[in-house]
Amino acid sequence: MRPIRSLALIAAAGSLLTSTASAQLMPPPPPGEEKPAYVPPVRPLHARLAPQLHWSVAAIAYGVALWVFALYGMAHLIAGNAPFLGWGSITWVALWGHILFAVVAAAVIEARTPR
After folding, report:
1. How far apart are CA 73 and CA 51, in angstroms?
2. What's the pTM?
3. Is there a contact between 84 and 71 (Cβ–Cβ < 8 Å)?
4. Which of 48, 67, 102, 106 is the most exposed place for a label (fewest CB within 10 A)?
5. Is 71 in contact with 85 (CB distance < 8 Å)?
6. pLDDT tens digits for the chain (115 residues)?
7. End-to-end distance of the chain based on CA atoms, in angstroms?
């Protein structure tokens, strides 16, 4: 068996096992009680400080704040690495990754929120 094919099978099996185990351990919350990670800190601030701004602006700000927390708070203060990982290329990849995560999470939440 080729190495890439083996890795794909292992990843698929791991994904199946993880999704099955998590489905058994944590049933989904009742409708209306979902609490996404982005909502508690950002939505009230967005509504109070700048309600005229589009939700995507708040999501980008959240992504940047999450990036600062991850690369300074966690990577530097907790793990002992250089602040912002020495401002190397991984720093900027992490910034875009955190922004992308925040925008996708906010878009899904906005799409699922009843008006």
Report:
1. 29
2. 0.64
3. yes
4. 48
5. yes
6. 444 444 444 545 454 444 444 445 556 656 666 555 555 678 788 888 888 989 999 999 999 999 999 999 999 999 999 999 999 999 999 999 999 999 998 898 888 887 7
7. 52
